[in-house]
Structure formats: structure tokens, C-alpha cells
Amino acid sequence: MQPSEKFTRIALLLLAAIVLLLLAGISVGVSQISPLHVLKIVVHALNPEWVVQEWRDSQAVIILELRAPRTVLAMLTGAGLAVCGGALQAATRNPLTDPFLLGVSSGASLGAVFVISHLGLALGAYTLPLFSFFGGLLSFLLLLLLLRNPANQRPDRLVLAGVAISFILMAATNWLIYWGDQRAAQSIVFWMLGSLGRARWDLLPIPSVLIIGGIILLICHARNLNALMMGQESAAALGIPVNRVRIEVLLLATLVSSLIVSLTGTIGFVGLVVPHIVRSIVGGDNRLLLPLSALFGAAFVMLIDIIARVMLAPQELPIGIITGAVGGSYFCYLLARRE
């Protein structure tokens, strides 16, 4: 089978899975609503003349104001983290790299916790995403400082640098929690475990546009990332501006990951697990890997969100706990395989 044919078939399967998970994600919850009613409610919201209302108003509120934005955020989260992970693994030539391990998530958490515990929404609803990005940018700048030493540009040293930065920023985050408003500490801890419960239509438009734009730009770097995977010297010989491409990829990954963290809290290891699974199916060509990672990541987080909602119903299990357990186990598996 030609790679293009394989790509098309897998993409169609993933799109079908996303549609099914979309219906399931909106239907499943404390209040069970059939997929048929979900479709009718959505169609009625688009044009009331197309469908006669035969459901309670409370059901429409649950579908349109609670579960629909949550499912959209799950898709954005999975697609964004997966593409960032795949791009970072190619840019650093290290298969164990993802935004969580490079300290981006910790930096974004630092900015968000500062807003929650000390600043408040001084700049309106987008205060949290803005400061979350600044925190992610801080981790990015610290990483660049360490990368000034050529010895630290080796793939293994890069991950170690990211882990070190992550610990430092997490220490600063914990300090903010300790010295901040203790009434907000519980909500901060729950937020740091990762949850899609903050999804609201009024918070999604601008972050969604930036996340989708960042994903598209990372996918546009696929050819350059393929060259970087051959080695720094080989990429330079092909006319690729190695340092510029690497910094652009790191900056885009920082932007996308920080925005996601500002909306969901810390959801780790999605960027590690998903690209590896996709790579085992279609190979390492980033022109195929990154788009399929976006689709697979969206489906993966949507599925995990459904599990998180039904596992301890009517309570909601933080999604970061499940992704951490799955991703951490897979990370150990990858380390055990390496010689």
C-alpha cells in the first residue's frame, strides 16, 4: 500500500472515530441524553424551524453550554499537545521529548497559578491565558540560555535541561500556592491535575484560533523537521537554517502548549504517547506523522475525557491523572526498550 493511500485510510478512520466520540462525549454524563436527541438539539440551535422541540430546556443547556464546549476543548487539547510532541521530538532528535518534559507545562502552570492566587482577573477573562503564555515563554527563554552551550544541544542533555527547568518552575509554583490565598489552594491543586471543566464558549474563540494556527504552522515545518532528523550537519547542507527552525518550533510549541495549559491545567504525556503510536503505524515522515498525530491526539483526549467522567460518576476524575498514568507507563516502556 502506498504511503498516501495508507495516510488517507487512517485519516478517514480517525475522523470517523472523532465524530463518534463527539456524539458520545456530548451524550455521556450524569444526565444521559441519547445521541439522537443531541443531534436534534444541535440542529434546533442552528435553526429552530428545522426541528420541533421535544426535550427539556435544561437538556439543551447541558448539551450546548456545558458538554459541547468541553468536547471542543478536548479536541483542541489532544491535537495541540500531540503535534507539539511530534514536532519537538523531531526538532530535538529525541523520541522522549514532549512539552511536559521540556518544562513548558510547568512554566505555563506558574503563570496561571500566579493569576489565580495573587493577581486575579485584572485584564479580564484572558488574563489567565496571557500569563500562562508568559510562564511558558519563561521556560523557553531558560531553555535557550542552557542551549547556548553547544554541549547541551545533544538530545539527551536537552531533555535533562528541560526536566531541571521543570523542577525549578514547579518549586516556584508551589511557593506561590503556599504564600497565596489558601482559599484558592484547593481549586489550584484540582486545576493542576488537569481538567476540561473550565471550558466555556466565551473563553474559547481567541485561544482556539491561536492553537489551530500554531498547529498548522508546526505542520508546515514538516519538511524542515525531516531534515533536522537527519542531523544538524546534513540539514545545514540542504540549506536549512537549523537554529532558526529549531527556535521557531520551540516557540510555536510553547505558544500552543501554554494556551492549552491555561485552559485545562497540566495534562502530561499526551505529546509523548500519541506521536510514538502514530510513528509505529506510518513511520517517521513528519508530513504524515504530524497531521495524523493531530487527529489521533484529538480522539485520544476525547476518549480519556469520557472515561474520566464515567469512572467515578457523578464525580469527575481529573483527566491529568489518567493521562499521567497512561503516559508515565508508556514512558517507562520506552526507556526499557532503549539499549
In words, what does this structure look like?
This protein has helices at residues 3-27, 35-46, 57-92, 104-119, 127-147, 155-179, 185-192, 205-220, 222-229, 232-237, 242-264, 270-282, 286-311, 319-337. The mean pLDDT is 84. It is globular, with a radius of gyration of 20 Å. It is built from 14 helices and no strands. It has 339 residues and is mainly α. Helix 1 (3-27) packs parallel to helix 13 and helix 5 (127-147) crosses helix 6 (155-179). The longest helix is centred in the N-terminal third of the chain and has 36 residues, at 57-92.
Note the total helix count. 14
Unreliable parts: none
Strand content: under 5%
Helix-strand topology string: HHHHHHHHHHHHHH
User: What value does the average pLDDT take?
Assistant: 84
Number of strands: 0
Largest sheet: none
SSE-based structural type: mainly alpha
Features:
single chain, 14 helices, about 350 residues, mainly alpha, about 0% strand
How do you describe this structure in short?
With 339 residues, the chain is mostly helical. 75% of the residues lie in helices and 0% in strands. It has helices spanning 3-27, 35-46, 57-92, 104-119, 127-147, 155-179, 185-192, 205-220, 222-229, 232-237, 242-264, 270-282, 286-311, 319-337.
Which helices and strands, and how do they pair?
Layout: H1 3-27, H2 35-46, H3 57-92, H4 104-119, H5 127-147, H6 155-179, H7 185-192, H8 205-220, H9 222-229, H10 232-237, H11 242-264, H12 270-282, H13 286-311, H14 319-337
Helix pairs in contact: 1-3, 1-13, 3-8, 3-9, 3-11, 3-12, 3-13, 4-5, 4-6, 4-11, 5-6, 5-11, 8-11, 8-13, 12-13
